[in-house]
Predict the 3D structure of the following.
Amino acid sequence: MTARYRITHKTAYYYEADVSASYGRMRLLPREQPGQRCLESSVTIEPDPGDHSQHIDIFGNRVDYMSIHEPHRVLTITASSVVEVDAPPSLPLAGGQPWESVRDGVGHTGGEDDVTAVQFSIDSPLVGASEPFRAYAEASFPPGRPLAEAVIDLSSRIHREFEFVADATDVNTPPETVLKTRTGVCQDFAHVGIACLRSLGLPARYVSGYLETDPPPGMERLTGADVSHAWFGAFVPGAGWIDVDPTNDQVPGQRYIVTAYGRDYSDVAPVSGVIYTRGRTKSLEVVVDVLGVDPSGPTDLPTPTS
């Protein structure tokens, strides 16, 4: 069974004074990977950039690069895509091996995925291993417990014991602070999960993407009601990755669309860059819409509106 989604992600920056130049990188388009196919995609930038190119980064993510050299006080980036997502397979049987065996086996099988996973087991710019995270993870990882079972339990505990508070944190809030306050958003909960796994010697990755959401009971679905989402995953040598979503206490399924993998948020930020101006950013608006569409219908993208 295949699901199809039309995704629009619009970001608008408003500046107090003229910006003489902007340079940026964007990770806004769905990945091409097993079980997920991007049928159509585009990134529209206003004002028109002098340079706009795309490449694949070290993690296999699609990255758009842009530079603008004309004065502007508004910068608008609109990413549009149509993506198909297959029903996910069952959890790998290898996930039934004791978590200690996975920890001890990382980096020793010689496979390409295994070598790649080693970089996810060490500290990254925003997430590092530490004793507080090891202690928190310990309840989910008793001796001999199957890895998949332990990771799912850890995700469920984060869901139960942490409170989702939209304005409690920002992109610079350390995971250590989130662990103490037990409040945050999906990015923070993913970072806590990653820190816990790495503190046990297990590779863990950050996943960014989109999630099709339901409207409140009895209400129509609202355009722009969706948001970017984040979750995390653990590596199983010889089998791949097991992803979990602590924000919603579930294993990601067909309603999840992946845009990027990384060691932490700094590797996969939707938009990052540098501007040259004497003023400040006055405001930022982000509107995301994920709409399920007929898989047998046309894939043409609508014309972006400013």
In short: The first strand starts at residue 2 and ends at 26.
